[in-house]
Amino acid sequence: MTVDLEKFSVRKLFAKPGKLDLPTLTNNLTYGIINSILTIPCMYGYAAIIFSHPDFATFMPALSKLVMFSSVVHQIMFTLLSPLPFAIGQVQDAGLIFLSAMATSICDSLGEKESLDTKVATTVVVLGLANASMGLCFVLMGKLKLAGIMSYLPMPVVGGYLAYIGLFCLYAGLALCTGLVMNDIPSLGHLGDWHYIILCIPGLLGGLAMFFVTKRCENSLILSGCIVAMPVLFYIVLFSAGSDIYGARDYGWISREASPASFIEMWQLFNFSKVKWSVIPQQLPRWVAMVCVVAFSSCLDVAAIEMDMGQRFNLNHELSIIGWSNAVSGLLGGYAGSYVFSQTILTYRSGTNSRVVGVCVILAEALVVLLPVSVMSNVPRFFFAAMLIFVAIDLLLEWLVLVYRKLMFREYIVLWASFIAINLISLEIGMLIGLGVAFLNFLLGYTKSKVVNRLFKRSSAIRKHAERVILNHRREAIVYLELSGYLYFGSSLRILEDVQKLVHVEKPTEKSDNPLHRTIQLEPQPLEGLTRSGKFEATTQSGRYIMPAMGIHYLPFIPFVRQRTQSHTLLNQTILNEPEYNAIVPIQCLDGSPAEEAEGVPTEFVVMDFSRVCGMDATAAHSSFMILQQQCKRQGIIMLFADVLPEIQQLLRQNEIADDEDFFPTADIALEYCENQLLDEDDDDDAAPLVHPNGRMSDRASERLSGMDGAVVDDGIPTLLNRFMGQPETSALFESIDRFFYRYIVPRGHTFYRVGEYPEQFFFLATGRVEVMMNQDCSSSHEKTLHLLCHVIPGALFGEVDFFANQRRLVGAKSITHAVVYEMTRANYNAMEHQAPELWKRLREVVIHSMALSITNNTCISSDHNAIIA
Length: 870
Prior knowledge:
The chain is α+β, with helices and mostly antiparallel strands and about 850 residues long. About 50% of the residues lie in helices and about 15% in strands. The strands form eight sheets. Strands 3-5-13-14-15 form a five-stranded mixed beta sheet, with helices on both faces. Strands 4-20-19-22-17 form a five-stranded mixed beta sheet, with no helix packed on it. A four-stranded antiparallel beta sheet has the order 16-23-18-21.
């Protein structure tokens, strides 16, 4: 919401309306009078708080007018500048205690050697400059859009301060009732005299009455009537009892008669020749605290108005308006002010959408300032005291009792600690203690927060069906951990314990001392693939895996022994689906404690994703990651780091926790590396990555795409189908298979299909790399920005999901390197059904199985990391 200064200029404010709407004008004037009745008594109470030191007693008529004049200035500024035509802006309670502390400190520091005129002149000038400079700070914060930094001030500490304001208002209210100085708990001892107790009773009852009226009655006229009724009832009772105003003064109901202060006398307080500028440095800590607290409180006021109106305001702009109001008010000798959110909301709910309300308040308060009348000498003391006691009850109940439902228990303790410290020590030291307790509470809570989160995540690479089966069986071998927040000394032990519980190692057994032997118990049954030599054999695309047959009940799982052969067939699909073909062994946690499951797959890789980590200190590096690295190294577990900030990388290198090859730019690349290691793809020319992390084609990819004579070569569609389907190359199902596929050599950046197109084909990738993209909202619109979903590696198929679903494509695909692909069109697929039905059935069965496995493994897409979470 922005301010149009021309729209809210003085000329337009007082311009004649085109049509006189008497009911609307009457309503506006009514609520203007109501707001005036609510604000004027409060200003006298606030004056009593700010100038509570005994040295100000003889100057109170003029000082009270000065506070009232400050409210006039605030209301003028808010009426002119605020985008809310019904805004009420006055001297607010948030800065009262700081102003009072400054005034008291100035009087005490000057001591008895200085005259009262000097003390008053120094006080009003210094307080005015403090308020003006605070306002300029608010303007600067608004212009630089720094209002959000106010959220760094803990709410419990501010709540403790606001509760202290309530208590101070109670002291001030009782002091007004009795005419005594009451500003702390020991001073309440004066109430032991029944005379003073009787003087306080009307003020207490009046404050309670106004509090209950505001809580039980929605009609604002009732509260205004209650305020007006108090002095009226007093004089009715006074005269009915046969007494007069002089008798009331003698008893203490009304202040002693004092000569009224004129408007000129108010300005005569600013005697710059008597100002002692040396007191300013002593007030700087209080000024800094006042700036923070008043800014925070003002933001809370704006937020309260936002919530009630259901509209969003520009907080930085509103803070600038508050700043200009305080700057002008301070230069004119005024005090800290802001929106009075309760009265602003009250006026808004009345349907009054006019600046006439603000003008009424301005005129009423200006009249009090200009008239040479001493209000305090003619109105009963308890009237002003009741207003302060009403504010005190509201603040104390809100911030010491009712706020319990809005805070955590530890935060509630912080609030009370701040409140008690401010009362027992001092305002500044008490708030610093509150900030310290809040910081300790933060450390305690942050230490207990979950920093390490285990996710079952796969890389975004689309792989061959058999590779997916292998990875599905061994998914527990890769532990993906997502770390978040700032890793510091307080969270180091929690990180260490969490990771140790999530990483599993093989439990030592008495059967073998060799850590490479992992035994699993099997039921005695014939094993498919058992050779004449008594060895269990299966072949893969890169070699033959041979496992010696050990006894009837135990079959050891040892690292695969690679033997190069001419065959490139996949591990037999039937063997992969056998429940016995896995690496399930007795396991325990890394720290030696029992795992949740007695048997499982031992961890081989730990991928730590630092994308959500904003920083780390040396203690966390030493106490967590160095110990983890040493423990993992002893167990043969590889620990990798992804998306790590440069400064954290340097810290890990300097402490010899990680080397350059242990860092990966993204978690997706790190996960793909781990999967390739599990599949032994580092030595397999057909499956090793064709693209470096920087996106350029590798040397091996260039060799695969071009032969010695420059011709583009690949293994052919029979080999691709053989690897994908788990069938031998000599199978009769592959005879004349080439006639159903089209072979293409495509350049980098070639688009295979777009989002929203009708699927007429799917593809097998022979060489190269392909990216699959989709809209972030998963729609089929082709006009939106695409985001990476996954990438396809050689030997895998893509485009088949939409093809078999017979729906418009939700994804698009393009090559990121030169590539060789085989295309299966819908026409050829239908022809295959009639010309080679066995091949068609097998192809359909395996592709559907592969799609189902892909959906199972990739259940959640992470748009933040452009990866698929399994």
